[in-house]
Design goal:
heterodimer, A: mainly alpha, 4 helices
């Protein structure tokens, strides 16, 4: 039994959260959020993995051959799409904040408009 | 500096709480490589005989979980609309940007790669029901290929594609077609998003029935969404240069 994939997922998550906490730039904050979300891809795919099993694609492979879980793979697909859309929206908001207040530091934004 | 300290202090209980939750969750996870999810095993066994698609992930996305994918598509659509509302403004184009690509090698190689990348994207989308790929993946690749026009040939060539009047209809059609296909199934067979066409021959392009149509709707939507996002961010960046 290996715990490495789960450890990697937890580590990537931790790195992202740490970056978000100490972030002093809205763009950096958005990237940290993406990193945090990336950990969920690793986690989902690691959960669905089966030892000595192939991809859940049966083109040229006999039906009934062991294959990894297709449900978590499709969830990962959804996850990636949501991540991209959220990041686009956040970056657009960051641009808007910069245009209106001239700063990208979340703390300064709060002092200017508080 | 002080505010940052407050943020760090506030984060400690949140991180500790979430860390505990994560550790508790991990403790109940099946060991790596020994997952026996009931639905996954069931789908691996029945998807190809039932739907004649050899890619089970695509069968899950466009058939067994087709309604979720419609929601997902509209998350994308709503986000693009949000970005457009935030960034799109009246643009004065009194002076076109001069940024013609200087290197012939970059231009020639880039233009060749546009075709190659778009073709790979279309292949990924078309064969998503048979081999790895699908509308989402193919759409991103096609959009990436088209964006190469900007990199290889410059802004003026790009503007022929990167226009709202050209891209917005595709964005709408991609999102709308999915719903129309769902409603068509509801009218004809009484079930929303039910597979309309016959299952076809497994392992060929003519398999999966109306799944391939939904797949193409998503491919169009994703391509257009990516291009609209790229256009809006690019225009937003270039605006100071355009209205000078």
């Amino acid at each position: 039994m290996s715990v490495l994939p789960f450890a990697v997922a937890a580590w990537v998550f931790g790195v992202g959260v740490y970056g978000a906490i100490v972030s002093r730039n809205l763009i950096h904050l958005a990237v940290c959020l993406t990193v945090t979300q990336s950990s969920t891809y690793i986690l989902l795919l690691a959960i669905g993995y089966k030892a000595h099993a192939g991809a859940p694609i049966f083109k040229g492979v006999k039906l009934g051959t062991p294959a990894v879980d297709p449900v978590v793979q499709s969830l990962t697909l959804t996850d990636v799409v949501v991540s991209v859309t959220v990041i686009a929206l956040i970056l657009a908001l960051a641009l808007d904040v910069h245009r209106k207040s001239g700063v990208v530091d979340p703390d300064e934004v709060a002092t200017l408009h508080g | 500096m002080r505010r940052q300290r407050i943020r760090a202090v506030l984060a400690v209980p949140a991180v500790a709480g979430f860390g505990a939750l994560l550790a508790w969750g991990f403790s109940g996870i099946p060991p790596f490589g020994r997952f026996h999810g009931f639905y996954g095993q069931l789908l691996n066994a029945v998807a190809t005989p039932q739907r004649h698609t050899t890619n089970v992930v695509t069968a899950v996305v466009f058939d067994y979980r087709g309604l979720d994918t419609m929601g997902e598509e509209f998350i994308l659509f709503a986000a693009v609309v949000g970005v457009v509302l935030l960034l799109r403004a009246e643009r004065s184009r009194s002076r076109p940007v001069e940024d013609d690509v200087g290197s012939d090698a970059v231009r020639d190689f880039g233009i060749v790669m546009v075709g190659v990348t778009v073709l790979v994207g279309l292949w990924l989308a078309a064969f998503g029901i048979v081999t790895p790929g699908g509308g989402f993946q193919g759409g991103v690749a096609v959009a990436g290929g088209i964006v190469l026009v900007f990199l290889a040939a410059g802004y003026r060539s790009w503007r022929r594609i990167g226009r709202e009047s050209f891209l917005d209809p595709f964005e709408g059609v991609g999102a709308g077609a999915y719903v129309v296909l769902g409603i068509a199934a509801l009218v004809i067979q009484g079930f929303f998003l039910r597979n309309l066409l016959g299952p076809g021959r497994a392992g060929t392009l003519l398999s999966g029935g109306s799944m391939s149509l939904l797949n193409w709707a998503v491919a169009i939507e994703v391509t257009a969404a990516n291009l609209v996002l790229f256009t809006e961010f690019l225009e937003s960046y270039l605006r100071p240069y355009l209205s000078r």
